[in-house]
Amino acid sequence: MNKHDPSSSHEHEAYKNMDQTKAASGEHDVKPVYLTQGEINALQKAIMFLKFECEETDSLLYAGSPLLNSVLEKVRDAHDYAEYTKDFHSRPNEYVERFMRAKLERSYAEELAPRERTAEQLAEILGACMYPFPVK
Question: Domain of life of the organism in this record (predicted)?
Answer without folding.
Answer: Bacteria
